[in-house]
Amino acid sequence: MPAVETDTRSLGAQKLAQAQELLRECALDSWLLLVRESMERPDPNLHFFLDQEFTWNSYFLVTPGRTAALVATGDAPDLISSGLFEDLRTYKEGPRASLIQLLQELDPRTIGINVSQDDALADGLTAGLRDHLVESLAGTTYASRLTSAEKLLALLRGIKLPGEHALVKRAVEETEGMFDRASREFRIGMKASEIADLFHREADRAQTPTAWSRRYCPTVAVGAKAAVGHVRPADETIQKGCIVHVDFGILRDQYCSDLQRMWYAVGEGGGVPEPVSRAHAAIVGAIELAANALKPGIAGWEVDLKVREHLASLGYPEYPHALGHHLGRAVHDGGGVLGPRWERYGSAPFEVVREGNVYTLEPSIHLKGHGLVSLEEDVVVRASGAEFLSRFPRELPVLSLR
């Protein structure tokens, strides 16, 4: 067999090259990323390439054939060391003349900038910095060539490279170990907030942040009366005959995991009630249906609709959220969503699934009298369909607690 070539470039260099390739698909001649005081006002896309912050106005221009950067002299040394940008220019008193000269040399017909109404992670350019850019380009033809780069950024974040898949997989596997260890300590009378403490302890031992705000990561729902959503764990306690549900993820090496697991604390009879076992089986079937449908070319809303119709056919109410979302450097990553065509999701459900995307699959059933029945799995899209990065436990774990 011929040897398989391995890309030895840094992941940042690979993502920069990927951006150059994707420009053509997005009908953009160039992409201009601007930042200033980037520690306090970060653009979420800069760190795809650089683990560096910038103080003064800094410009990164990418075209299919060239990469250029214009930064203040004090921000230049570490950027030079990175070797990422072929053309690196500096300024002392102000960048306007150098920026215009650079644009004149490349003369792009369209200049994508990071603004978007629907995609939060494509909206990294602050209003003030955008105004400054427009003023800097006043009197030139380039001010009228500015346009949104949201499609480019959706693809750049959404289409993960093999190195990114490996990083998400590592985070998922580490998180699954945390679920295993924490769940062994569940006991009757334990509060939801104490369950959260177990997961925080796991993250602290691993010296890794939680994937979203620690205030409600993990989100813990115990029993039928627990609040469900982006809420902090409360004081409901594990009792015999209740569902315990945990939604948790970590950020490892700048890539996230996002998993949901559930358990049933058996009562005196020792078995799982039929409504709970039936709902759990319905969720497992829904995830399998979604995974089989998740192939390149299908729109996100179409995958979501298949699952909604399946659960409705079994007599369950509509879940009040998307079936799944992109997962990567952010826990809600990418530009599309596996969700319904609701106003709150804007254009995101119409984005098509691409090979290399990493999604969560997380249908849910709010089972009256019992609580939240849900699992969340992390998958990568291959040419033939979804490949699970998580274990996908198809059997309902039973807790025999004292």
Automatic annotation (TrEMBL):
Leader sequence residues: none
GO molecular function annotation: aminopeptidase activity
Protein name stated in the entry: Aminopeptidase P family protein
All copies of domain Peptidase M24, residue ranges: 167-382
Alphabetized Gene3D superfamilies for the sequence: Creatinase/methionine aminopeptidase superfamily
CDD domains: APP_MetAP (cd01066)
Keywords: Aminopeptidase, Hydrolase, Protease
PANTHER family, sorted: AMINOPEPTIDASE, CYTOPLASMIC PEPTIDASE PEPQ-RELATED
SUPFAM superfamilies (alphabetical): Creatinase/aminopeptidase (SSF55920)
InterPro entries, per the entry: Creatinase/aminopeptidase-like, Pept_M24, Peptidase_M24B
